[in-house]
Amino acid sequence: MKRDTIFYRIFQQSPILLFDLMPLLPENSLRYTFESVEVKEASFRIDGVLTPPDPSGDVFFTEIQMQPDPLLYERMFAEIGNYVYRRTELFSSWRSVAIYPSRATEQSTTKVPSELFASGRIIPIYLDELGEIEQLPIGLGLMVLTTLEDDRAISEAKEMLNRSSRSVNVNAIIEMVSTIMVYKFTELSREEIDAMLGFKIDELKQTRVYREAREEGREEGREEERREIVFMLLNHKFGELSPDNQAQIQSLDFDRLQALSQAVLGFTDIKDLEHWF
To answer: What is the tens place of the pLDDT at every residue in 68-90?
Structure first.
């Protein structure tokens, strides 16, 4: 099962979900962004990186490990070392979260210095110890759902779809539940999976919440497309933007982004952008 892909999509939809797994929240937690990063020097790929909104914050690395790996932590530190070397100006410190289905999957021995674990920089999470799936937030429930087997997975998926009818993100939840089940039951088609989950999918798609959420998703898509155009134009003219300028653009709504995309054509200096703001 391609759980890395599932977890990436979960974190992409809700970047701060990682913080639900942790006892303490960093400052500006709602403004963190998420990406999957390839470290060029050794062709390592970090499953996920949550980058702080300004260099005073911590960066969080995530590793999704559903199968035993006797050298996971050594690989993690190689990846983190390369990332820190390349992007040290983006943050003040770092922490890393390793997500396992259970303690039995965790690396049993390690050459990594014990003080790094004692410092709290490494945070192992065991999905089977988070509690009953019915009591978890939907995002965490989706993670646990990836670890369940057969009949239990089907029953919990149906219950999650039922719960999602009360969520503004109902369309994203339906899609994620269906996708998880497709990865679990590889011998079945998407249509067969939907049929297995029962009438709830068709029923939920008729609800007002689903229709409104779908329309909202279209609007968000248009806004994100316009934002990408603005970044492309500005980067082409002036190179990589400062973190402050990037944050200002991220905060603009669709109308302001459209106005900026037109104004950029007349900019001759990066100061024109700052004056526009």
So the answer is: 888 888 888 888 888 888 888 98
pTM score = 0.60
Give the model confidence (pLDDT) of 111-152 as tens digits. Answer: 776 777 788 888 899 999 998 998 888 888 999 999 998 889
Counting beta carbons within 10 angstroms of the beta carbon of residue 187, is it exposed (0 to 12), middle (13 to 18) or buried (19 or more)? Answer: exposed
Structural tokens at position 2: 């391609």
Distance, in Å, from the CA atom of 260 to the CA atom of 79, rounded to the nearest integer, reads: 37
What's the rounded Cα separation, in Å, for the pair 83 and 96?
12
CATH among 3.40.50, 1.10.530, 3.10.450, 3.40.1350 for 3-147? 3.40.1350
Residues 6+ apart with CB under 8 A from 213: 168, 169, 170, 171, 172
Among residues 90, 75, 101, the alpha carbon closest in space to that of 35 is found at: 90
Task: Please tell me the distance from the alpha carbon of residue 122 to that of residue 6, in angstroms, as a whole number.
Answer: 22
Tell me if 47 sits within 8 A of 63, measured CB to CB: yes
